Amino acid sequence: MTDWLTPDEWRAVALSLRVSAVAVAFSLPIGIFVAYALARWDFWGKQILNGLVHLPLILPPVVTGYLLLLTFGRKGYVGAFLDDWFGLVFAFRWTGAALAAGIMAFPLMVRAIRLAIEAVDPKLEQAAGTLGASRVWVFLTITLPLILPGVIAGTILAFAKAMGEFGATITFVSNIPGQTQTLPSAIYAFMQVPGGEAQAARLVMIAIAIAMTALLLSEWVGRAVARRIAGT
Amino acid sequence: MTLSVAFRHRFPGLALDIAFEAPPGVTALFGRSGAGKTTVVQAVAGLLRPDSGRVTADGSVLTDTDARIFLPPHLRRIGYVFQDARLFPHLTVRQNLLYGRWFAPERDGASLDRIVAMLDIGPLLDRRPGALSGGERQRVALGRAILSSPRLLLMDEPLAALDEARKAEVLPYLERLRDEVALPILYVSHSMAEVARLATTVVLIEGGLVTAAGPAPAILSDPSAAPLLGLREAGAILTARVAAQEEDGLTRLESAAGTLWLPRVAARPGATVRLRILAQDVMLSTRRPEAISALNILAMTVTDIRIGEGPGALVQLRAQGETILARITRRSALALGLAPGLPVYAILKAVSVAQENVGAGG
Question: What's the number of domains chain A is made of?
């Protein structure tokens, strides 16, 4: 499997998969929580939160990367704190790539889940409450199963977005082979080198294959879950 | 168990000031749409936090705004049957029925088998709600509420979303529930027919206020409450025992007020039934009528007369503790010289008591 990819190319693919998986895994619980808050709760600053969540979608990715560098860089407020207390470093590490990918993919994830939550009739949750279920149980036994198709769609969308993230990543963590060189960064790097087109083309094929697989998988899983929930 | 409710709440356009006690049995909250009935059950269930007031169930406080007590719905152990069944679409009927079991204390409560048998929902257990008819859904919703071992059951117009045939299908199950499961029930309805069949206590709600409350037979036979209940719908409840099924298709019933013949009542001899006698179906005579086609002639005494603003009059009659109402014209009341204490004969055509006005006793 590895013979038709050079070690650098292979590392880029593996790193991208790892970065995206970690980004999605960490942002999913937060995404569900934020989506629930935006869909169901009324609180002060709701519109501000909504704006913040959507900001990465409308800002130029370079700006997001730059802001990440300012806050999560070694000298940034949050970055310095995390380094001092937890030894957690984001700048120029793969963890930073995961953070950038997670933040860039977050709006898409929240949007999909929020729509799913808004489609759940709150009367069902009320009914579950009168049957003795606390809020947490209502969420786990009623809301979550009913929004599962939306959660799956949001997750896969976010994964695909994370795989393709380029601007914020390269700004925040640069393009170090084996460290922070994700699939898009590698494609970009090969295109800068004379004679690198063949390598770039191979990676492009892989990117397309991964994206198509993710899309088909989400369609298939989403349909299977929706059938189960439809209640017939 | 006695439920005690007293609260005030203000909505734009409606101010509620509600106070009543619900003794064991079925307490019907009766009133027009928009009178505030649903708000009352929501306040009892904890789905609405009243501006001020107190709700207690057998001394245990559910809401007390003065003491800043507000028990959340899931800790109240109050079953709620909604107008729209609200079954969980992703769960099977069996899982729906057992949902409340996850949270209910193990000790008491009816068994699944017993409730499934009582509601005839055995064949539905492995289906999902999407594949059920409206009547079936409502029966499952009933079972689900009962199986959560509540100490009180709230029913918010559980039949309103069903057509007449489905209503007739579900009503007997509600009677069974009332008679077999010892659970106090708060039943919201704007249908006098349902109230007359099910209620032991009636609380009348008009424009956010309780305008009358008391035992169902007393309220339904109170001429002064009748205009509030709707004159066309006015009718008292008569309790009778099935004596015999006769060969010509009639059923002979014995009540304290006398013998009645009605078209075939589907009940075994010895069973107690509850008859709703509409006031407008009752004729009065000061002499025992002879050579008349009406089969049912009861000797009673006038106990009250209420002359309406229109041409009508409502007459309350009593015999051996049973009370009925007759709605006649004011002219007839004057011509007959009706007055409290006067003995009269109440005449009722056998066929005027419709099947849906005959229910199981209780």
Answer: 1
CB contact under 8 Å between B89 and A141, yes or no, is no
Residue A1's pLDDT is 47
**Hey, are the CB atoms on A123 and B131 less than 8 Å from each other?**
no
Residue A229: its chain B contacts at CB < 8 A? 89-90
Chain A to chain B Cβ contacts (< 8 Å): 78
Each domain of chain B, given as residue ranges in start order, spans 3-220, 235-360
Q: What are phi and psi of A136, to 5 degrees?
A: -65, -45
Which of A129, A130, A231 faces B130 most closely, judged by CB atoms? A231
* CA nearest to B330, candidates B304, B301, B305: B305
Quote the CA–CA distance of A97 and A163 in Å, as a whole number.
10
In a domain, A1, yes or no: no
In CATH, what class is B235-360?
A: mainly beta
What are residue B326's DSSP bridge partners? B315
Residue-wise pLDDT tens digits, B46-99? 999 999 999 998 888 999 999 999 999 999 999 999 988 999 999 999 999 999
> What CATH number does residue A36 fall under?
1.10.3720.10
Write the DSSP symbol of residue B232: T
Q: Is A157 left (phi over 0), alpha (psi -120 to 50) or beta?
A: alpha
Tell me the pTM.
0.82
Asked if residue A37 belongs to a domain, the reply is yes
Give which of B62, B92, B103 to mutate to test A binding, by max A Cβ within 10 Å: B103
Between the alpha carbon of residue A109 and those of residues A29, A148, A177, B207, the distances in Å are 11, 13, 29, 47
Enumerate helices (H) and strands (E) in chain B, giving the number of each: 9, 21
B78 close contact with A: CB closer than 8 A? yes
Residue A171: give the domain boundaries: 7-41+50-230
Q: How far apart, in whole angstroms, are the C-alpha atoms of residue B121 and residue A39?
A: 36
- In angstroms, the separation between the Cα of residue B8 and the nearest Cα of chain A is 22
Residue range B3-220, CATH number: 3.40.50.300
What is the predicted ipTM?
0.81
Could you tell me if residue A2 is inside a domain? no
How high is the mean pLDDT in each 10-residue block of chain A (232 residues)? Answer: 70 91 95 94 91 92 91 84 82 88 94 92 93 93 92 90 90 86 89 86 90 86 77 53
The helix (run of H) or strand (run of E) holding residue B30 is strand B26-30
